[in-house]
Specification:
Length: about 425
């Protein structure tokens, strides 16, 4: 019997351990909840025990009919789902609820602590009032002394704060005054700089005017003296229009305002370019405005040419200037062989060049955009072979562009500058 008792104790212990396991226990409880109706019929049904056992075993015959697992969820699937929910999801839900309730519980605890603190404070106030009510207690005198000391300390603090505020106001006022002084100083400095700039500009304008007026007056005086010899008189405005149109200005006022119209620039002039047709129209308009009789534009142009005979620069037509530049370049054409652009083309041949043939004018005119008078020429240069003196070498084609830059107005031109280049002659 002892052996049977030990066996029973062992079986019961193992069974109790399995049941206490959270997974096994949860599954057993879940299975019982899902199959409570079958368990009730098995133990408390109205039929015979054999019938109830047979019916129960038939419904649980998983090995004989495995499909029963998928048709009857209460046998396995639903208990497994409840077990999974209980073991894994329930703790998470509980933890979520605890987190949400944690703030509420904390506030409730804080409220309880605050209530206790208020209660203790009220009790202390009550005890203090009782002590004050007792005239024989020394606490009343000490408290009065403490109250007086506190009141005195508060008064001193207020006084110190008032003095500090007053000091801050004075400091702010001093800073504001200093800032105003600095601002006034800067404004005065700016005004001084403006006055100095205005004085400097005035001096510069006066200097420019001192250079411009004598030059402009010279032209006016020469022209006025010339036409007087024919017994004619023109107004100052008419004389100014003649000189302004000659240099390509819109009016004599523009001429006087041009900083370039001064002695230093005029000394660098070489030519004053004119177009007889265009200038004749302008001069005729001036004659009509002056109401001069028995004279025309040719007469006035003649007087302009006469005054330039007394000046170091030449009044010249565009065509005449182009031919003059062409002639001078041809006279000194051997110098073209030393130009960088030409020597580059010479280096591409085996020829020793001896002379430059006559250059011909291809084009000339005045470029309004760049304010330059240009002349384009072209020609050839020839010589003998480097190794054979008796054999002619390969020629080069030379292209020359000479231009005169406008120094004063549009038509007061400098001497010409040459830009030349060359390429080997292509005989094909």
């Amino acid at each position: 019997m002892k052996v049977l008792d030990d066996l029973w104790v062992s079986i019961r212990g193992n069974a109790q351990t399995k049941i206490n396991d959270p997974i096994v226990g949860a599954f057993i409880v879940s299975w019982c909840l899902c199959n409570w109706d079958r368990i009730s019929i098995l133990f408390w049904g109205s039929g015979k025990l054999e019938e109830r056992v047979y019916l129960f075993s038939k419904e649980m015959a998983v090995f004989n009919s495995p499909s029963i697992l998928w048709t009857n969820f209460d046998i396995l699937l639903l208990p497994l789902l409840l077990t999974f929910t209980y073991i894994f999801l329930s703790p998470k839900v509980a933890h979520f609820v605890d987190e949400k309730l944690n703030g509420i519980n904390t506030k409730r605890h804080e409220y309880a602590i605050e209530a206790d603190i208020n209660k203790v404070n009220k009790q202390r106030e009550l005890n203090k009032a009782r002590l004050r009510a007792n005239p024989e207690n020394e606490f009343l005198a000490e408290e009065v002394k403490n109250d007086l000391a506190i009141e005195k300390s508060e008064a001193e603090i207020k006084l110190a704060e008032a003095e500090a505020a007053k000091s801050r106001q004075q400091e702010a006022k001093v800073k504001e005054t200093a800032a105003n002084i600095e601002l006034e100083k800067r404004q005065a400095q700016k005004e001084s700089e403006k006055r100095e700039y205005a004085i400097s500009a005035a001096k510069q304008n006066a200097m420019l005017a001192s250079h411009q007026l004598p030059s402009a007056y010279l032209f006016l005086a020469l022209l006025s003296e010339s036409i007087k010899q024919d017994g004619e008189v023109m107004s100052l405005e008419g004389l100014g229009k003649c000189i302004a149109s000659l240099f390509g200005y819109e009016s004599f006022e523009y001429l006087l305002k041009d900083k370039k119209f001064q002695n230093d620039r005029l000394e660098q002039l070489k030519y004053v370019l004119i177009s007889s047709d265009a200038l004749s129209v302008v001069l005729q308009e001036i004659i009509d405005e002056e109401e001069l009789e028995d004279v025309d534009s040719e007469w006035l142009l003649g007087h302009l040419e006469l005054i330039f005979d007394k000046l170091p620069y030449e009044l010249i037509l565009d065509e005449t200037l182009a031919h003059r530049i062409g002639e001078e370049i041809n006279i000194n054409s051997h110098e073209l062989l030393h130009e960088d652009g030409v020597t580059g083309g010479m280096a591409e041949t085996d020829t020793i060049f001896e002379e430059v043939d006559e250059l011909e004018i291809n084009d000339f005119g005045y470029d309004q955009k760049s304010k330059k008078f240009f002349v384009k020429l072209s020609g050839t240069a020839s010589g003998h072979h480097r190794k054979e003196v008796d054999i002619p070498g390969q020629s080069i084609d030379i292209f020359v562009e000479a231009y005169c830059e406008a120094l004063v107005g549009c038509y007061g031109l400098s001497d010409y500058v040459i830009n030349a280049h060359a390429t080997p002659t292509d005989y094909q």
